[in-house]
C-alpha cells in the first residue's frame, strides 16, 4: 500500500490567510522551522495506478499539482483518482469536491449522514451523479473503492460540522457525522482518524495492531486558541482531543500498539508545527510524527 499526505493542516491551512498567531507569524516570515501546510487529506493506492482520496480539501487543486501520481496520464481527459472517501461533512473535507466537477468519473463514498449533507446543498450537484455515483457505506461493512483496497467505516466520538451546529449540539456522540476509516491492502492496515473528541475502548481496539495510524492532531493544548487571542473555543468544544495533558492523545494512546503513529489535521495555532520546539520534541519523544504535506509511506 502506498500512502501520500496531500494536506496535513486543519481548516484554513498554515499559515491561515488572515492569522498572525505566533506560528503563522513564523510561517509568513518564511522561517524554515514552520513548513506551510494545506488542509488535510491523504491518498492511498494498492498499485496499478489507481488512487483513492480520503477527504477532499479546499486545497485539492494545488495538492494534485504537487503530486505527480494524481495527475492525468493519457488521452484528452484522465485521472488516476478512482474514488473519494469522506469522513465527515466539514468544509475542510468536502469543499475540494467542487474542484472535481469536470465530468470525470469516480465513486464518492460516505455515510448516509455525510452524503445527506451534500444532497441538501445544491452546489454539490455540479459533481454530477451521472459521472460520480454517491455510495453510502454502512458501519462494519467493508467496501472496495479501488482494486486491491478494502475500506471500512467505524464510528468516532465527534460532532456535526460547524456549519450544521445548532442549540441542540451534542459533542462526543458516536453517529454518522464523524467516522474513521480502516484501509487494508496486501495484508497491511492503515487507520485514519482526522477528527476525534474522545478515545473509547472500541476505538482503541480498532487502532491496535495497525501498521500506520493517522490521528487528529488539531491542538497541542486545549485552550491554545484562547491563549493565542484568536478564538473563543477550546479543542473540546470543537470536538477535538489535544495532543498534551493527562487526557490528551499522547497519554491516552501511549499503550496502544501501532507500527507508526502520525498526527494530521493540525491547527495553525499548534506549536508542535514549529520544528525544534519543546512541543515538537515532546511528541516525537513519545513516538509520534507531525505530518507535513508530501510525506509518503509504503506499507
What report would you give on this structure?
The longest helix is centred in the middle third of the chain and has 9 residues. The chain has one domain: Ribonuclease Z/Hydroxyacylglutathione hydrolase-like (Metallo-beta-lactamase, Chain A). It is an alpha/beta fold and 299 residues long. Helix 3 links the parallel strand 4 and strand 5. The strands form two sheets. Strands 6-5-4-3-2-1-14 form a seven-stranded mixed beta sheet. Strands 7-8-9-10-11-12-13 form a seven-stranded mixed beta sheet.
The CATH architecture: 4-Layer Sandwich
**Distinct helical segment count:** 9
Report on the biggest sheet: 7 strands, mixed
Separation, N- and C-terminal Cα atoms? 5 Å
The mean pLDDT is 92
CATH superfamily: Ribonuclease Z/Hydroxyacylglutathione hydrolase-like
Radius of gyration, CA atoms, in whole angstroms: 18 Å
Q: Please indicate the percent range of residues in DSSP E strands (runs of 2 or more).
A: 15-25%
Beta strand count: 14
CATH topology name: Metallo-beta-lactamase, Chain A
Helix-and-strand structural type: alpha/beta
InterPro entries: Metallo-B-lactamas, PQQ_synth_PqqB, RibonucZ/Hydroxyglut_hydro
Keywords: PQQ biosynthesis, Transport
Organism: Xanthobacter dioxanivorans
Domain Metallo-beta-lactamase: 51-266
Amino acid at each position: 500500500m502506498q500512502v501520500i499526505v496531500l494536506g496535513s493542516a486543519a481548516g484554513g491551512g498554515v499559515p491561515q490567510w488572515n492569522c498572525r498567531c505566533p506560528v503563522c507569524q513564523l510561517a509568513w516570515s518564511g522561517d524554515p522551522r514552520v513548513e506551510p501546510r494545506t488542509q488535510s487529506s491523504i491518498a492511498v493506492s494498492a498499485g496499478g495506478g489507481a488512487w483513492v482520496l480520503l477527504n477532499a480539501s479546499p486545497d485539492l487543486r494545488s495538492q494534485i499539482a504537487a503530486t505527480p501520481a494524481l495527475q492525468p496520464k493519457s488521452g484528452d481527459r484522465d485521472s488516476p483518482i478512482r474514488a473519494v472517501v469522506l469522513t465527515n461533512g466539514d468544509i475542510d473535507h468536502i469543499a475540494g469536491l467542487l474542484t472535481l466537477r469536470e465530468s470525470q468519473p469516480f465513486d464518492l463514498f460516505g455515510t448516509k449522514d455525510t452524503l445527506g449533507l451534500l444532497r441538501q446543498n445544491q452546489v454539490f450537484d455540479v459533481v454530477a451523479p451521472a459521472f460520480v455515483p454517491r455510495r453510502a457505506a454502512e458501519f462494519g461493512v467493508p467496501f472496495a473503492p479501488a482494486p486491491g483496497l478494502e475500506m471500512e467505516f467505524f464510528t468516532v466520538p465527534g460532532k456535526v460540522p460547524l456549519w450544521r451546529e445548532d442549540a441542540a449540539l451534542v459533542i462526543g456522540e458516536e453517529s454518522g457525522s464523524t467516522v474513521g476509516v480502516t484501509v487494508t491492502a496486501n495484508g497491511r492496515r492503515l487507520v485514519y482518524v482526522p477528527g476525534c473528541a474522545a478515545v473509547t475502548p472500541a476505538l482503541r481496539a480498532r487502532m491496535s495492531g495497525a501498521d500506520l495510524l493517522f490521528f487528529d492532531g488539531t491542538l497541542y493544548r486545549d485552550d491554545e486558541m484562547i491563549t493565542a487571542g484568536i478564538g473563543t473555543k477550546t479543542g473540546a468544544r470543537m470536538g477535538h482531543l489535544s495532543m498534551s495533558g493527562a487526557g490528551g492523545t499522547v497519554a491516552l494512546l501511549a499503550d496502544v500498539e501501532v507500527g507508526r503513529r502520525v498526527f494530521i489535521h493540525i491547527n495553525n495555532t499548534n506549536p508542535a508545527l514549529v520544528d525544534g520546539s519543546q512541543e515538537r520534541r515532546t511528541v516525537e519523544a513519545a513516538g509520534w510524527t507531525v505530518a507535513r504535506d508530501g510525506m509518503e509511506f509504503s506499507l
